[in-house]
């Protein structure tokens, strides 16, 4: 398969017959389904995202390379606000998060949910080819002409995932912000400045800090909470651990290497020659804590 330019759509997985292009369903608010404790379902499981009939539901442990690498959209639904796609099992936890945020006076929105291989590849290729800036540690554009290929790969990976390895490929991870924090005409940028003191999302992130460590959190955590020498810290990036941990366990350097051999993308030769150490540094993150049911 080949990565296509941004804006060009093609079927993500032509051989998949499990409903790639079927109409996205919308679902009622979580309060209709869950008890106060957040786990007791009170409706027919067939009507609830996250509960699939057993006969068409492959075990998560058998996740395919296409599911892991952003080539399979069959598990996705529209997010609760109708813009962006997420894994169906994230729908209710996301509703709980959004409702908690709303109760605290914030308007939680997604800057990103699911992102497929082609989209990630377009970002990657644009940075590798100079059509998009590659940033230094301070967020200023780098002179990429002065870098050798491996240095360029590392520079891109600080801010953007290698196509095939993004956690956004799973539908389990989201980039969030508080739309109420934006001034008229202002748009979200997803920079650390926005969440720091004086930034438009400072209060939202202060609240989120408490929510993530509190008893009502259904399992969200920040995989890029601090700088471990790989991906630059991203306080806005949340992962739903009960689901994402399973994808992360299934995604190994071998799975990624075998899959990437089938794709075309910029700097491929250099990436493939260094994939084990790139994977360890930029793909591996600590698993999130999973709440007990
Ligand atoms: Zn993200």
From TrEMBL:
SUPFAM superfamilies: Hedgehog/DD-peptidase (SSF55166). This is LAS superfamily LD-carboxypeptidase LdcB. Residues 86-242 form the D-alanyl-D-alanine carboxypeptidase-like core domain. GO terms for biological process: proteolysis. GO terms for molecular function: carboxypeptidase activity. It comes from the Bacteria. Residues 1-21, 40-59 are annotated as: Disordered.
């Amino acid at each position: 398969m080949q990565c296509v330019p941004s804006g060009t759509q093609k079927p993500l997985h032509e051989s998949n017959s499990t409903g790639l292009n079927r109409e996205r369903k919308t679902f009622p608010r979580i309060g209709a389904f869950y008890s106060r404790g957040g786990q007791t379902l009170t409706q027919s499981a067939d009507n609830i995202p996250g509960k699939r009939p057993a006969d068409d539901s492959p075990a998560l442990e058998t996740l395919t390379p296409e599911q892991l690498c952003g080539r399979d959209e069959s598990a996705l639904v529209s997010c609760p606000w109708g813009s962006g796609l997420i894994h169906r099992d994230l729908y209710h936890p996301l509703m709980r998060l959004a409702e908690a945020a709303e109760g605290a006076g914030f308007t939680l929105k997604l800057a990103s949910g699911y992102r497929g291989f082609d989209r990630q590849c377009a970002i990657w290729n644009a940075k590798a080819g100079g059509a998009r800036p590659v940033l230094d540690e301070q967020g200023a554009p780098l002179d990429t002409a002065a870098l050798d290929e491996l240095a360029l790969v590392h520079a891109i990976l600080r801010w953007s995932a290698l196509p095939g390895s993004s956690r956004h490929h799973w539908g389990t991870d989201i980039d969030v912000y508080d739309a109420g924090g934006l001034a008229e005409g202002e748009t979200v940028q997803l920079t650390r400045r926005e969440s720091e003191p004086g930034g438009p999302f400072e209060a939202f992130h202060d609240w989120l800090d408490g929510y993530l460590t509190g008893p009502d959190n259904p399992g969200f955590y920040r995989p890029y909470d601090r700088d471990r020498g790989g991906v630059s810290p991203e306080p806005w990036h949340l992962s739903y651990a009960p689901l994402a941990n399973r994808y992360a366990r299934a995604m190994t350097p071998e799975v990624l290497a075998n899959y990437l051999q089938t794709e075309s993308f910029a700097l491929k030769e250099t990436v493939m020659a260094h994939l084990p150490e790139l994977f360890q540094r930029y793909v591996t993150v600590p698993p999130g804590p999973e709440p007990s049911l």
